[in-house]
Amino acid sequence: MSAQTIQVGAYALSFISDGYFYLDAGTMFCRIPKTVWSRFVAVDEENRMKLALNCLLIQYKGRNILVNAGIGEKFSEKFKKIYKIERQENIILSLEKAGITPEDVDFVIFTHLHLDHCGAATRLENRKSQPVFPNARYIIQKEEWESALNPNELTRGSYLADNILPLKDRLILIDNSMNLAQMGFAEIRLIKTKAHSEGHQIVEITDNNKKVVYVSDLIPTSKHVHLPYIMAWDIDPVGVINKKKELLSKFAEEDYTVLWEHDVEYGYGKIGFENGKYFAKDLVPKLT
Ligand SMILES: [Zn+2]
Q1: Rounded to two decimals, what is the model's pTM?
Q2: Ligand 1: distance of its center to the CA of 10 in Å?
Q3: Residue 216 Cα, ligand 1 centroid: separation in angstroms?
Q4: Which residue among 1, 100, 148, 211 is the one 20 to 30 A from 236 at the CA level?
């Protein structure tokens, strides 16, 4: 259990790191000009910003659920250079630190199937992509699975067959928002947001005392709480803004703890609202 474990009743939540990668910072802020975002984001000589790959481990009654599975290592040298992938920390080492072997993972929830959210769930063995978690079942929105198998010219680069096809016999495809009571996890609720991708979902873990949400690419870092700060990767930009509005108002009113997948500085925080603007507050530094 890491120093950053958050408890929701009997659920223990901790970050599992798959390292870091870099994306062109312009693509992380869509229409916002560099003169604005460069005030709060540092970039390298290629205009890239560093992003964390924070997966979430949920432990409950001896069962282990992983939310997202990082970027992995099935890449050519050219690809690794473009995305400047740094995996000194990685999902296997990070799970090991938490006392978990790949065999111990019972479920993997994917918020969506973009390559930086599912890549480490498979690895190459004799040049063939194979599942890393042999006993896991994979919970995904049906619409996400289908769009990942049928990408268009804009989305093709984000959905890699080697990340997705090896998992096809162990899927639990769901349709719309639902809690996981059927699997014995009544306090975990998946909320289908769409907008970032066809079947993007976020993960809430709540009880009467505490509410936690893993927002994935709907709000990739604490810097993206401000409504117009969205990514060029969103397939439906206006949809993302509307969904952020709806959910941020709930997160602020009901005092949610918001966990960020890609933030290099902060692991989690709360949401404030003042003068018509949402902002991140009570930020806790990322330790992993
Ligand atoms: Zn994404």
Answers
A1: 0.96
A2: 30
A3: 8
A4: 211
